[in-house]
Protein: Reactive oxygen species modulator 1
Amino acid sequence: MGFMMGFAVGMAAGAMFGTFSCLRIGMRGRELMGGVGKTMMQSGGTFGTFMSIGWEYAAESVEEEPPPPHCKTAMGLFK
Structure:
């Protein structure tokens, strides 16, 4: 789950930064699409990898706690 979320965020960032950098150096047409696509995949893969590591690390550090007493009645309604 962490990788997919990170990949989506990385692709969005890669689209913005890739478009800007490719236009800045003068790419057009297929060259532009290829450059932007490559940047999106690289950014998505990198950010997805780090997000999946952080996701697992955070999931291990959270301990299961019982809900507070005032929430037990509300939780009973939805079971």
